[in-house]
Amino acid sequence: MDKTRVFFLLTINSVVLYSLVLFFLRDLDLNQWLVLALAMLLLAIAPNLIIYSSLKSLRREVKAANHQVLFRDSELLVLKQRLSTLVHLDALTGCYNQSYFLDVLRESIEMSDRGDYVFTVAIIRCDQFIDVLDQYGLSQGNRALKLYVGAVNKVLRSTDTIARLGADKFGLILSDTSEKDSALVFKRISKSISHLRLVKKQYATATNTGGIASYYRGDTPEVLLSRAKTALHSAIDKGKGQFIVSDPAH
User: Fold this and answer.
1) Residue 70 is part of which domain span?
2) Is the pTM of the predicted complex or chain greater than 0.70?
3) What is the pLDDT of residues 131-147, one digit of tens each?
4) For a tag on the chain, would you pick the N or C end, based on fewer CB atoms within 10 A?
């Protein structure tokens, strides 16, 4: 039954009821009529006031419930975002992990294939990590690694990506960077880490070794990383603190 029909039936019932009251009480004097009219008015208004008050209270409760739901949804969204971020982070250093690095690498390749986007991949090694680990233990080794990552991050831009690929090795994706520019980035990183105190109460000259590879159309992520790793191994053979740019022909 729709609202209009309900209202119509209630109106008819009210008119009939009041007509019967007036018919049976037609001999009342003026004062009695006034009292009766006031009583009938109150009887007519009171239910509406009660209903209005109840509806107002119900609206407040619904509004509060909606706010609570929105607040919880917002909390869940923030929690999901935090969890998503944590899934992609290396627990020790706070930089990204290998899984995220590969995702960014694939996206970078797709961007390059669609236009004139240029990027370079580098794999760098903290040369002193294993020595510190062997001589001073895991705690000092981990501390040295975190200091190293912090110094590297000071050189990188927000558009660059750093991820931990191994115990002492990190991958870099340098956006809008040529091979020549990436060599300059490596030198700035070397300068940034050169004064690190890798072990408490003792200075150790920190160095890193790197292999650099630029993307060429048709390269897969595996091929590009393989070239960077080959360049890194060649640099390691030359000694600490060295870097080599990959030859795409090899």
Assistant:
1) 3-85
2) no
3) 898 988 999 999 999 99
4) N
